[in-house]
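Changelog entry: the RagB/SusD family nutrient uptake outer membrane protein record was regenerated in this release. Current contents:
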Amino acid sequence: MKQYKLLSLLAGVSLMAFTSCDLEEMPTTDIGFDNNEETVVNGANIQNFENGLYSAFRATQYGTFSEVPELMCDGFNETINSGNYFGPVHRTDDSFTSSNQDVESIWGSYYSAIVNYNNVINNDYVNEQEAAFMVEDADYTQVDAYAIRALGVAHFFRAYTYMQLARLFAKDYEPSTAATDLCVPLVLEYNQEEKPARATVEAVYGQIKKDLDAADQYFMKLYEAAAQLSQANQLTQSYYDCYNTILPSGPGSESVTLDAIYALYARYYLDTHNYPEAATYAMKLISGGITGKTGYALAEGAKGMQQEYTYDQGTEPIFQMAASLAENGSGTNDAYLQGYANGASSYYLDPWYIPSAKLLNAYEDQDLRLLTWFSRNEPVLWEGWLITRTINIFTKYYGNPELNNSIVPNGRQHVKPFMIGEMYLIAAEASLQAGDPTTAATKLNELQTMRGATPTAATMENIQNEWFKETVGEGLRFSCLKRWHIGYNGRPARDYSVQLPTGKTLSGYTPAGTDRTQKNMPADDPNWLLPIPSYDIQLNDNLVQNPGY
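Regenerated structure tokens:
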């Protein structure tokens, strides 16, 4: 892990003369790229192009992107009211094919976003600024700092997106086979005529590392440049703004920071089996991030959990994206809610998926996550009857009241791509794998204690169970089970039954069957690799389909 000595050259310098115009308050103005026309990027509009990067990234968060890798696994059961939404994904039966629309949406959206990132990375104006910025003895006053920041952001988003694609469509990174295992096409420049073949897992993760290193390098050099200009009394508005965004001032930064880069490094090193580095990056964030004083902390008690997971005002996010009542810009994890108005002053839920007994039973009664993220108090529609205080609903993404102008829960939350809880889990798992069970136990037990759970020994099984409980709904279950090579054996449901006033008994809210509640998905199941969309294979005869489709 690179070690940086953070300079204090900006301390005591009169910076208040500047009015920050950074991405902490993201403007709704953004510019996208049209590959059929020449797009002019310059100092006057570079910030709008940078906002476009954030819009493209945010559009690939939550909704289908997190629900598909959750619902394929063992944490949720399909209800009788699902309408077959995500049904093929959940069951992976004969209806789950390479033409699956959910998978096509994920693949297409990720690659569409990559087009935006590539166009900034390869833009002539941005590259001219980068060349002037990176030379020895550069004259920073002649460089557009916003262009350098946008370049770093684009590299970071591209690294993140390729990691998501690799986790979904390729085998887990194994050092002994990564050089031959197929991953996804590496598309780094726009070429409408190109028909790229699938790169190897090793090549894709190699590109992820290059992009992370580039983002880290540009951000650190921006910091150093701002410090140097401040010392020389030449600090400009652009460098001041960039300084304020790349260094996190506290939890919940709405822009990409050096700490967000560290979080993605932690994931990268965990995936690639470099456990000492994974633990080091995760521990750095737990200890306050690059500044050592950012203040990431697990929520304190029930009130802290509510502040974090209802109002999006907690201390856990390393990166939390902007949102407003008027502008959502991301998907919503609403497969667990599906709320509808019931008159002017009430509502009911008609969820497609509810928590499995396996998930609910993983928690102790006093666990704050069980008490905060699940509820039996919601009115649920069942065969025309409104049933209350019976069915467990997953409410982790119930919706921030500030992002809702209705009484009906809408599932809208600020997108949080990285949370400090995940860093505790990475630190525990990586430390154990690296032969440091003491640190593994310390980090695991700190997380468990803050969540109101009983501390356990730092065995791999206990760490895996904590991943299940802590990151439920975040879309990480699929990649975790793949990384551990364990699959799952069954996802039993709670046995819900209700005696109606008519004398009839309602039962079977979650249909049983070998592809539903009794489903097994062993580690060698071909569905751990999502299918390459058939439409893309028809257009590109260089693409090779994953086995089993």
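The chain has a mean pLDDT of 94.
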